[in-house]
Structure formats: structure tokens, C-alpha cells
Predict the 3D structure of the following.
Amino acid sequence: MTPDTRPESKFGRLNPLRPELTAGVAGAALTLALAEFVRNGLYAAYLTQVIDTRFGLPLAAAASAWTVHLVADTLMRGPAGALINRFGLRWVMFAGAALSLLAVGLLPLAHHLWLLLLLSALHGVGFSVMWPGTMNLTADAAREGYQGRALTFINVAVTPLIGAGVLVYGALAGRGDSVPLTLAIGIQAGATLLSLLIPRRRPMQDTAGAQATPRVPTAQLARQLAPLLPAAFMQTLTLTLLGLWLFRIAPGLGLDYWGLVGLLVVGGAAAFAAMPLTGKVADNGRALLAVTLGYALVGVALAGFVLKPPVAVMYLLGPLAGVGYAFLAPGWAALVTRVLPEAQRPAAWGVLMAVENIGVALGPLLGAFALRHLGATGPFKVSAALALLTSLGYVLFRHAFRERPPEQAGAEPAWETGRQAGHD
């Protein structure tokens, strides 16, 4: 057979994923995005407004439901990764989506606190497979040397659905009818069906479920995972510390609503513009450098806001922070895929995601503490200090992060095995 010498299309050149698994990754990403839309819409916007009028429960029940959901999600991230390794991607993600659908479908009946909390926990257990499954499939499906960029792209693509869920359900909560819950059931059902597009097994597993790459001893895996745990916690703690309090802090910095929105837009635009370059740095064997530099830039930018500079200077600090994030996001993704052994990556990454969730939960609390005791610039002070401390930690403990070279991290032989076995 003569090799296919047709020139690669423009999409093929830009696509960081292997063509034969692009559809599977798209199915996983859509499943995750719709699941995020539903859970953030229900818990962060809908229940907080109607928990007393529609469900006859105290206001604290809405907060308790969200907390129980997050705790169940966090505790099950590690086991979810282990299930993916053992039983394959499609059926574990389908089971998670189906369990979430059951919980959402029974939510209209939750007029007792115990039932609301039970359904919230079941929803959290079901949701816990979504991020480990999608991120591991994306890492496995990424083209050689494109892991950081592929993972960052999926992350960025899913994130808007989180905010959209809050906005949509914030508006629908005032209807007072069954439309919001019916919509949630329908969207979660769609997510469940989309999960059937996901490959049955990870691309580096053969038809019998055996790993195409060797497993490392548990003690060695623990040593490789250990330095990533504090890094995972610090990064989400640092990046979530400010988020909930920005609009409250803005007047103290001399920014009105639209001034803050403009600053966020400029920073986001700088991040998107820089990601092709920063992603290439991360994927070319310099993931640790990208993460270290990213935290340093974010820390310097946040420290600049502490000085309450003129608005014009803030519009320079915003892009600086954006470029820092552009280094950080693909750098972290590439670092994880290079440090963790491929055969045991789902379970290990699930543990990392659980630690990240703890940082997400504690970040806003620390931000509130800083705002109360240190004033309007308090969250910036703490966040800048943590970012710079994390950057310094990566420098001091750089030898603990043993990255595999890009050509070894890609596992080309595993892909050849996957092609011979076939994937559907």
C-alpha cells in the first residue's frame, strides 16, 4: 500500500488532537460541558433562589446541597480515575452521566432535607468521572508534543458553559414553574447520550483492557505524584482567591462595573493571544519553566494592583496577568502528562483533581478573610504572595519534577497498538 501523500488540511495542522479520536474527545468535552452547565446552574443559581418557595426548605439547605455535592465530587475523583483504568472510558462516563441524570430527575421530589442532600451526593458521585475522563482522553488523544495545548483548549472550551449555566438559571428561577428543572433533565439526558460517542477504552489500552505501556510500582508512582499535590492545591487556591470578590473590591481600586469588565476582557484577550506561543514552550519539554514563569508573572501583576495604581496602569497589569495564565495553563497540563506514568495516569490525575477541588473550595474563604482583615487590596496581597511563593517553590524543588521528554510522553507505540486493536 502506498502511503497517503495528500497535504494535510488547515484544520489538521491546527488541530492538536489525533484525527481518529477528535470525535471521541468532542463527545467527552460536550458531555462535560453540559454536565457543568446543569450542576452550576442548579446549585449556584437556581436552588439558592427557590429553595424556600418551591421546595419548602430553609435557605441553608441550598448551601448544604452545594457543599455535599462538592464533597462527594472531590472524594470520588481518585476512585473515578481508577474505575476508568479498570473498566474503560465510555461505560464509566456513561454510568456517571446516568447517575447524574437520576439525581437531577428526582430533584423535583426533594421536599425533605435528607432527600435533597442524598440526591446532591449522588449527583456529585456521578459528576466525579467527568473531568478525569475528559482530561485523560484528551491527553491520550493529543498529537505528539501537543498535550499542554490540547488540554488547555478543552479547558477553555468548557469553562464558558459554567458561567452560562449560572446566568441562564439565574434568569429562569423567577418563572416559578417546572421549566428550569425540565430543562436541566433534558440537558443532562443529552449529556448522557453524548457520552456514548466516547471510545470504550483509553487509546493506549488493547481490546482486553491491558495497558500498552508498562505500569510502575506503587511506591514509584507515589514518589512521582507527591510533588504535584502541593502544587495542585496552591494553584487552585491562588487562582480562586480573588474570583468571587472582584466586583466587591473594584470600587476600592477606582474601577466601576464596566471598568472591571473591560480589564477582564483585556486580560483574557492577552491570554488567548499568547497561548499559541506559551503552549509551544510548555509542550517542547519546558513545562516546568512555563509554570514557574506563569506564576511569577501572575504574582507580579497582582502585586501591582496592591499599590492601587492609575486605571491606565491597571490596563497594563491585566494583560501581564493574562500572559502569566497563558504560561500557567498549558504548562501545568503538560507537566502532569509528563510526570505521571501513562498507564496509571487516570487514577493519579483523579487524586490531583481532588486536591485541586480542595483549593477551589478554600480559595474564596481565604479571600473573604483577607478582604475583611486587610481591606480592599487584601485578596490581592495574599494571592500575589501565594503566586510568588508557588513560583519560588517550583524553582527550589525543580528536581522533584522529573519530566519525561516529549518523545517519551507521547507513547507512539501505544497508539500503534490502539490502531491495531481498533476503537469505536
